[in-house]
Amino acid sequence: MVRRATGSRPAGGQTVKGARRPEVRLPALLPWAGGELEPDGDYDGLEFREADLAGHDGVGARFMDCAVTGCAVDGTALGRARVLDSVLTGLRGVGTQLAESTFRDVELVEPRLGGTQLHGAVLERVVIRGGKIDFLNLREARLTDVVFESCVLIEPDFAGARLERVEFVDCALKGADFGGAALKDVDLRGAAPLEIVRGLDRLSGAVVSPAQLLDLAPVLAAELGIRVEG
């Protein structure tokens, strides 16, 4: 696997450090034999294709050098799972449980997910490209070198999370909550629309465009208790 950096970008005379993206190169994979995921299971070099994993219990499992394609993950229990050097494509499901899980060097492509629980998770060198995720719960999570690209995020919850070198590229961010979050080198300029309902006071480590700042001005004024009258 080869990793590359996107580099740093100037923003109003300052430099925003770009996220390091993963480039996952999978080895020859074996097809998964099927059955049920197992708690603390070890899955290495496998291809999960069009599998119905809904309701499976894979708490604490490890997935390394895996391809997961077109699988259903409704209510799948994967808390404290570790997903390493893997590509996840076309996942679909509601209520997937991934609390306190770890994603490192992972590409998540064209997901269709709702209510995914990633609170307390660790995401490092992760790209989420395309698709739509509703009500993504990343409360208290740690995101380092994460890119949200060409995707739609509806009411994502970053409350209490730590974000460092996180980029939003051609991404719709609607109803986001950054309450209590800590941000460093977070580039929001590629988010359109950019809608933040809570935590504007936590954006000191982020960069926005002048147009975005104007769009956020009414919410910012309300949050700071500023009255705007003609």
UniProtKB/TrEMBL annotation:
Annotated stretches, region: Disordered: 1-20
Query: What top-level branch of life does the organism fall under?
Result: Bacteria
Q: InterPro entries from the entry? A: 5peptide_repeat (IPR001646), Pentapeptide-BTB/POZ_domain (IPR051082)
Q: One Pfam match, by short name? A: Pentapeptide_4
Which SUPFAM superfamilies does the record match to this protein? Pentapeptide repeat-like
Kindly provide the name given to this protein in its UniProt entry: Pentapeptide repeat-containing protein
Per the UniProt record, the source organism is Streptomyces actinomycinicus
